[in-house]
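Sequence, please.
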C-alpha cells in the first residue's frame, strides 16, 4: 500500500518540526513537504502533488479560508484538513462551505490527527468532538470577524494609533506603496470606505 502524501502548512516552524516527528514513523503516511506561507503552499501543492494538506488558518500572507478555497478550486481531489486554534462556529461552517474535509484543534491528541488524515483520504470527513459540538449548537453562526494576515494586523494597530502611511512604512521597514496596499485590503475586508469606519468595525470585532 502506498503511503498517503501529506503537506504541512503552518507559519510556526517548531510546530511543523513536531508534526514531522509525529508522522514520520508511520507506515501509512509520508510528509512530502512543508510550507510557512500561502504562496509556498500553492507552489508545494503544484510541485509535490500531496493528497492531504494540513492547513493552519493564520498564515502571514493570506487567510487559511482563502487558501482552502483556492486549493480546492485548482486541485478538486485534494483533501484539506484545517488544524488550528480557532474555535468558532462561523469559521467551521465557512471552511465546510469552501470544501474542507476536516477541522480539528491543535490541542487534539496525536492519534486523532492521524485518524483525521486516514479518514479524509478514504473519502470521508473528520471533525473533532469539540467542533461537532459547535456545529450542533442551535441558531445561526455569528458573523465572523474578517481573517487578517499578520501584517494586516500590524498595519491596523498602527492606523488605530494614528500613524501616517510614511510613519508606518518607517516603523515596519516597508514601502509606502505596500502600506497603502494593506490599507486598501483592510477597507475591503471590513466593507468600509474610510479609516474611521474601519477602526469602529475593528473595535466591534475586538481586534483592537
Amino acid at each position: 500500500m502506498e503511503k498517503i502524501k501529506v503537506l504541512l502548512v503552518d507559519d510556526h516552524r517548531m510546530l511543523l518540526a513536531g508534526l514531522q516527528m509525529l508522522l514520520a514513523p508511520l507506515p501509512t503516511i509520508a510528509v512530502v513537504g512543508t510550507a510557512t506561507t500561502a504562496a509556498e503552499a500553492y507552489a508545494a501543492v503544484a510541485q509535490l502533488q500531496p493528497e492531504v494538506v494540513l492547513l493552519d488558518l493564520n498564515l502571514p500572507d493570506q487567510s487559511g479560508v482563502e487558501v482552502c478555497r483556492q486549493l480546492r478550486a485548482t486541485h478538486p481531489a485534494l483533501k484539506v484538513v484545517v488544524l488550528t486554534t480557532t474555535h468558532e462556529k462561523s469559521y467551521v461552517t465557512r471552511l465546510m462551505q469552501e470544501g474542507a474535509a476536516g477541522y480539528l484543534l491543535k490541542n487534539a491528541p496525536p492519534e486523532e490527527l492521524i485518524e483525521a488524515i486516514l479518514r479524509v483520504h478514504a473519502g470521508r470527513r473528520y471533525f473533532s468532538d469539540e467542533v461537532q459540538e459547535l456545529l450542533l449548537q442551535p441558531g445561526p453562526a455569528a458573523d465572523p470577524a474578517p481573517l487578517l494576515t499578520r501584517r494586516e494586523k500590524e498595519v491596523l494597530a498602527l492606523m488605530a494609533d494614528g500613524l501616517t502611511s510614511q510613519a508606518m512604512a518607517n516603523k515596519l521597514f516597508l514601502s509606502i506603496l505596500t502600506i497603502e496596499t494593506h490599507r486598501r485590503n483592510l477597507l475591503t475586508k471590513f466593507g468600509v470606505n474610510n479609516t474611521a469606519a474601519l477602526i469602529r468595525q475593528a473595535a466591534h470585532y475586538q481586534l483592537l
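The chain has ten helices and six strands.
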